[in-house]
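Researcher: Next sequence.
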Amino acid sequence: MKYSSLVMGLAALAVPMLTNGAEVKTELLESYAKHSQYLDVKISPRGDYLAATSRNEEGSVLLTVLDINESKILSITQGNGRESVSSFQWANNERLIMTMAREIGSLDAPVPTGEIFAMNADGSNQVILTGPRSSDGNYEFAQVVDYLPEDPEAIMIYTRSFFSKEPYLDLYTMKVTSGRKRSEGRIPLRAYASTNVQVVLDSDGVSRMVLGIDPNEKNKTVILGRDGANKDWYEVDSYYETDGGFVPLLMLPGTDQVLGLSDSQSDTRSLSVLDLSTKQETVMAEHPNTDLMPIMSVKNGRANEVIGAAFEYNGIDTFFFDDVEDKDYARLVQSLIATFPGQSVGINSSTRDNRKLIVRVESVNAPAKFYLFDRDKRALTPIAAAKPWLDGHTIPTTQTIVYKSRDGLDIHALLTLPNGKEAKDLPLILLPHGGPHGIRDSMGGMDSDAKVLAEHGYAVLQPNFRGSGGFGRKFMELGYKNWGTTMINDMTDGVMHLVKEKIADPDRVCVYGASYGGYAAVQSGIREPDLYKCIVGFVGVYDLNLMYEQGDISEAQAGRNYLDQVLPSDSEGRTEQSPIDNVDKLKAPVFIIQGGADIRVPEEHAFRLRDALKEREHPYEWLYKKGEGHGFYKPENNVERWQKMLAFFEEHIGD
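Model: Next structure:
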């Protein structure tokens, strides 16, 4: 397909395939390192404009607005310094709402600035609506609660003071032209540091349910509800994570029922409905082995009806309910999903009348692409691609596999194989994900690390070891306190499974990971010193005791509660599972990669590991980028990182 002229400058770049695993082609690395041309695309309510986010060369996110009818760019907006556009939405057909965030690393979520901006599609009438730079000058953090599609001139926000460590939240309806606010009351839950408060509105724009976390009660979840505007709040439920509970998503229109995800009655997260009038929860659907997410119809700019569910187990899958009212919308979604088998298909936005929709399609084997679907014309037109320069290039294929852990668990994993090579006796890179809890390696999005390694002749294994998310509460909790023991065993068992299947050469195995994955890489080399021939740790945690002293997790009580929950309970136990205290067991050379601006895993972890290796005269390599955070943003730094990693792997397990 050719891309529409609506999107400017999407020139495809032909990328040569590698024919020799030992050869590093910089052009290919640059193609994978290059920032996505488009991150998100949304259509205006009447269908006149497209707004799209993209990254510049420095990694900051900017917003571009396109006039569909005139096929021209109307405006380009970006933040100051390292500020990026964090979220955006059409308030009405002419006006956009934006929030900003500061990027702190490619592996970590951006930190919101707390300011809300508004502007017209052509970039005019720009207004800072909240914060110290706004007209009222209040030192408050603000967040959009709801875009109020029924009121095109206003949005719902909450604010909290910059100066209070445990602030309450104040709700306001705010004009999108001036920032003038009308109070909608105070939420009787505190927004503690490192926690967030979720607010759920009904179809009339009235806040009816709120959820918060209480770090003074070991991160207990508290849910409050009320029966309408100006009514008293009451407790609906409270629970600890280990007990399971209900997480609200939205109120079903015209009812007192709240749709949510729940593991209160099941191990995995089901689709459930909680009736505020009775406080009774009813399970709509559940999968015995994996979590569900709802598929909703949309009406007048709001989610309207649950028409099905999406899930990922042995691949990306969906199911749909028969007894739905909006059968046309359900058929539309099913048709779009059938058009792109094996891919994640989502409706990003639509016109108010639902006649035109922006559809996002992506998978582990294909970068995201955006399509405009015109229901009247029954036409699906490609309008933008995240990485158009990879079009026409044969990307190595990733597939799902399942193997047994040594204690009998089913471990789901992703396996990426190099093109043009028989899947036999291949050099293997074990690539554990970060997190580690609540995170999973998914078929829903492409992992550039895995693809780059496979492009150079390596098989790549990404196991969803115990502790990973998406497979139920019990599976995740099996990883607690076991970062360096049974979680590592699951990874090793995956390697041995591929050896047994004769896919991997047992004499040519290395391990690489980032964040927790960096920890797991070094810890794997400690536990299995004769298996791994080399180790790469990228922004990794190497001292579990240091996590209580440095880094943003330990700065708040909620973060310390999390560490208490998932790490060994005492200093001795953490020492036993800390790579920094066990480097004498290593045999394989170690390559340490670190960013100097990392606040999640401060550079001290890397320095301590380097010093311990140096003291023992253990072979190591070092790459340090002062201005990078938790993961590298700059394409040239990722190219350099891959070049050095590939040379390192070639030296130790190459042909």
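Model: The first helix runs from residue 26 to 33. The chain has ten helices and 35 strands.
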